[in-house]
Design a protein that fits this description.
The protein is an alpha/beta fold. The protein is 31% helix and 20% strand. The N and C termini lie far apart (56 Å).
Length: 254
Amino acid sequence: MIESPNNEKIKHLSRLISDNRFRKKSGIFAVEGKQENERAAKFGYENTEYFICESVFNEDLPKGKINFVSEKVYEKIAYRGTSEGIIGIFKIKYFDLKNFCPAKNSAVVVVESVEKPGNLGAILRSCEAFGIDALIVTDAKTDFYNPNVIRSSVGCLFGMNIFQSSNEDVFKFLEQNNYQIFTTFMDESAVSIAETDLKGKSALLFGTEHSGLSDFWKTKGKNILISTSGTIDSLNLSNAVAICCYEISRQKLQ
């Protein structure tokens, strides 16, 4: 039983949770919550150890090395307070876009320079829910294994094809694999997504939360928009992605 917040294992875990660079250097990351840990194991992420507070965790113990911690210690390390009583440590997986072999009617989402971990997690959740084959992030500003990404994706991160790459390499990949590219610039050239055929091999591109897609993607695809009836002219990034993912799923199921 670990009862001191100053225990070396707890210090190491706290740094894994808070420090992106330390996670990458260590090659491991922390996963909090029962469902999230179950999904990480289900999709082949290798566990190294668990930290469990028995007075909070009311489930069968997972297989593997277990460190039992007091409620006081768990409150210190838990990203979500005292929720569920389990934090697992898993090895980071690295994915190379060159190894991705898309299906004939593949649909992918490309997000450029996404900055907010909560938005990235919500985007992953929508992509998984609506059967998107891959999420590709260009010019990444946040870490896939950030605790807030894992939390807001409800562990959907672990079952998705996820890639980070440059704009140039992603454009080359999309061209080589015959994707029809759909951009989301806010200008008069845009056509409503409801009037756009998304049943084929499609790549939908979204820009940053504050300024949209960069000029790199100008003229590289067909421009689409989500028709609205209110006075506001834009949506939260994760909401816009969710609506577009639903439209892709709806068209493919027709």
